Amino acid sequence: MTALLVIAKAPAAGRVKTRLCPPCTPGQAAELAAAALQDTLAAASRAARAARRLLVLDGDAGAWIPAGFDVVPQRGEGLAERLAAAFADAGGPSLLIGMDTPQVTPALLDAGLAKLDAADAVLGEAFDGGYWAIGLRRPDAAVFRDVPMSTATTAAVQRARLAALGARTASLPPLRDVDTIADAWAVAAEAPRGRFARRLAALDLKAALPADRLYGRLLATAAREVLTGAASPARVRSADGGLEPLPLDRWLGAADAADAAVLEHAEPAVIDLGCGPGRHLAALRASGKPALGVDLSPVAVRLARRRGAVAIPGDVFGDVPSAGRWRTALLLDGNIGIGGAPVALLRRTRELVAPGGGALIELDPPGAPTFRTRIRLEAPGVVSEWFGWARVGVDGIATLAGRAGLGVEETFCAGGRWLARLRRP
Q1: Which of 169, 203, 237 is the last residue of a domain?
Q2: CA end-to-end span of the chain, whole Å?
Q3: Taking the C-alpha atoms of 176, 180, 186 and 188 in order, what is their torsion angle to the nearest 10 degrees?
Q4: Radius of gyration, CA atoms only, the chain
Q5: pLDDT of 207
Q6: How far apart are CA 144 and CA 125, in angstroms?
Q7: Is the dihedral of CA 259, 262, 264, 270 positive or negative?
Q8: Which residue range(s) make up the domain with 9?
Q9: 138: Cα separation from own chain's centroid
Q10: Domain-located, residue 238
């Protein structure tokens, strides 16, 4: 009795299609996984040569499973063991596919099942170096022994393993797995009428702008609207689905008492790294402390100069005037997260300040975690590309500073904001 097996994970957010995040949220990735699985199961249901159909499932079964499928749990520690166990559960000639190729057709599955009449094995390679289908005339755990899964050489090693066992292996046409968002769009174009393609289109994943370009656009818009008292609708989305306001209105406003409390600790001359529209620079200038701001956004620099601040467009990792001679470097408003590499940023900060100079670093409160993530900017009708970011808590700064060759002189709260004063030896 020839069997057709579909090995899959139940489409739960955070467990499936995680490489689609970003640009998808975990929930959107799960929706796409569910649609891909439904398309795959529908094709398997219509494969005429399958005498038996098994869904080899990791997770809970649901109403999305069509009639005619026996559900068996996945068994084993790794994918190789789970594949071997699936064939053992089928017990006879079987063709196994995954849930990553929603463009598969009943005719293609029937062709694979038919090849098992004459061949010992069938292999359908994927464009990423893996394989989307494997068939065996009889179960044999040795087929998968020592075959590395989910690598660029998986299919080649698997074919070599079959040859070493003396198996006559027939081939199926290569298909593209859905791993990345580029794969998703390509597969949707191959099967535009499927659930997967329709779900992808319905998600309306917006074309992304470079982050610095959208940031400048949002700043310019907010600068106009702040005169009318309108709040900026801009948000920051984390790759884990978190969503927070982007506080453009505060950045564009005048420095407040909390800012003044922070800036009292800045020894002149000061360099503000990622100065934005320059409220800290303007406050330093008003207090008689010379300061220079650096920001990637020309719009931010232009807005800072309108306040009378001295600011230049540029990358903090590029050429910076008076490098090695500043007394204080500022990384405020979360700018310790720039690039998602706080140690590299702190090393650069150490290079910019003079020996004995220091840095004022704004941090998350005590008890908050230190971690790297990816974020994007969002506003009505537009999003930015995802980019690396980091969050650093008070409890995590000592380790990072030490790796960068800086000492932690103190951590403290000023104006309700948590900071660390770092010192270059």
Answers
A1: 203
A2: 76
A3: 100
A4: 28
A5: 64
A6: 15
A7: negative
A8: 3-203
A9: 40
A10: no
